[in-house]
Amino acid sequence: MTDRIQAMQIFVRVAEAGSFIQAAQTLSLPASTVTSSVKNLEKYLQVRLFNRTTRRISLTPEGAQYLTQCREILALIDHTEASLRDSVKRPQGRLRIDMPGGIAHFIVMPNLKDFYTRYPDIYLMIGVNDRQVDLVQEGVDCVIRTGELDDSTLVARPLGRFRWVTCASAEYLKENGIPQTPQDLSHHRAIHYFSGFARRMGEMHFARDAEKISIPVNGIAAVNETGLYIKMCLAGFGLVQLAENVVCEHLRDGRLVEVLADWQPAAVPVHLLYPHQRFLSPAVRAFADWMAGLVRDGDNYSSVL
Q1: What local confidence, expressed as pLDDT, does residue 28 receive?
Q2: For 272, which DSSP code?
Q3: Domain ranges in the chain?
Q4: Domains 89-159+272-304 and 164-263 share a fold
Q5: Predicted local distance difference test score (pLDDT) of residue 75
Q6: Which of 180, 197, 251, 276 is most buried per CB count within 10 Å?
Q7: Which superfamily, per CATH, for 89-159+272-304?
Q8: What average pLDDT does range 243-266 have in this prediction?
Q9: pLDDT digits (tens, 9 = 90+) for 149-176
Q10: 216-233 residue pLDDT tens
Q11: What is the topology classification, in CATH, of domain 164-263?
């Protein structure tokens, strides 16, 4: 029975990845093991599960039906085991998560000891990316994403909202003056941020009451990683817009100064996303609850600055 369950897990991973090699990599198994497991499963079931060509594989009708049934069986097994773990309140196991660099370095890392104090039996695999990842293709359990969502194939749990601020280093503002209105930014420069799904990178966005405006701001450089974005701001290269949670310490010590506080960028929603399934593992649930607490605590930063 154990071998049958493992064979189902391998089959599901191959079907989701669309590749024997990709599935083997995400399962940390030799490609030969994955291939032979599927072949043995087909022999046992006496049906062909995949159509194979030299370039790709695809599910047969029988394979598609079997995939649905395997997912239900494996989800039920996971739920049964999770129920036992929940009964002793000690979530455990390996949890692979992916998140933007700013959240990883400036929100998660400073509080990571607290997480392990609460959940010592969870082994975290933290991927740091400011790009979107394919959870199924890359074998990721859950991801943290900011901004509006456009992927309906994932389950989204709201964690809260980030208050965004416009800020610059004290050195930059001393040399270039403090903008009083968004229109004053024509005399300033910004550090631009780019990514595959970002808004137009040469603009800064503002909102006041019901009014929303976008202002183009000149700059001399663009980056796609939050840590570098902040370092360039601290070095005086220009203005930036990002989550207050990420730079709260720099705002407290005066190295960064918020400007245009009456024209804050719109708050940005934060979600934890995971593949659609009937049951949510205790490890994912524990991390989601902990992360939601950090985002909520961030709502209080402005009151102490």
Answers
A1: 87
A2: E
A3: 2-86, 89-159+272-304, 164-263
A4: yes
A5: 86
A6: 251
A7: Periplasmic binding protein-like II (3.40.190.10)
A8: 92
A9: 776 678 888 998 899 999 999 999 999 9
A10: 999 999 998 888 999 999
A11: D-Maltodextrin-Binding Protein; domain 2 (3.40.190)
pTM confidence score: 0.65
Give me the CATH code for the 2-86 domain, please: 1.10.10.10
Q: Which residue in the block uniquely carries the two structure tokens 């416009």?
A: 166
Residue entry with tokens 């455990």: 92
Backbone angles phi, psi at 300, to 5 degrees: -95, -5
pLDDT (tens digit per residue) in 79-130? 777 766 564 567 888 899 999 888 999 899 999 999 999 999 999 999 987 6
